[in-house]
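As the next step, I wrote out a protein sequence along with its fold in token form, included below for the reader:
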Amino acid sequence: MSHTAHIPSHRKPRRSAPKTALRAGVAGGVLSTIAVAGAAGPAQAEPVTRTIEMPTLTDGLSTAVAASAQATEQVAQDLRTQAQEEAAAASAAKAAKKAKAEAVRKAEAKKKAEAEARKKAEAEAALRASRTQARTTLSATTSGSPASTTVATTSSSSSSSAPSSASQSSSATGSAASVISFVKAQVGDAYVSGGTGPNSWDCSGLVQAAFRSVGVDLPRVSQAQSTAGTQVSLSNLQPGDILYWGGAGSAYHVAVYVGGGQFVGAQNSSTGVVQRSLSYDPPSGAVRVL
């Protein structure tokens, strides 16, 4: 026995041949089977028909579309509502502006009317005061004079004796008669400040028109008419003379003496054109144009 026979070998023991052959045979058989199956597969396989049910997306998509449409409609409705509100606001603002303008116009018209009424009332009050003062002055300056006595006597006789008035009026001839006929024809017409006819007059407008009818062109206002002719005494009046109230050159009222102690004049807005006795409103003086 050698010395090396008892030394263990570090090499792995070889597998036995039968096991190796068996494993090789099994592996070879499997591969052969696969190869055969692969070769025979395309020729022997039959087509297989299978219905695959895909998941349905219609319901979810419909819901999403409906939600989107609803949201779009809501936005459109909101826009329409906003437009309507803006239109209503604009209309209301326009109406308010128009109403305010109308209210301002009415207020201004009312204010103007009140101012005119107040001015008219003040003018009439001033006219009455001036006439009262003129009468007082005339009474004081002519107290006891023949002129005052004559005027009073004439007035008294004219109011108590119609035939005397008629005879004095009928004594007017020519242009004076035409002037008297003109002013008497206007009795009953309205008094309007600045009026020159044909149906409404102020005092100087009536006198001017009466004398214009006979070709005499008088100034337009009372102040100028009171100095347009020759100053005559109230005791020596003739039909056709111009009577004035106030001072010569500063008269505030005029009329036409028609005889019989009476005059015709456009007095005021309350009476219009009237025929009155001199005692109704004694004049301050007179001028003779004809």
Notes: The helical segments are 17-44, 58-141, 146-160, 162-170, 174-185, 203-212, 222-225. Confidence is low (pLDDT under 50) at residues 138-169.
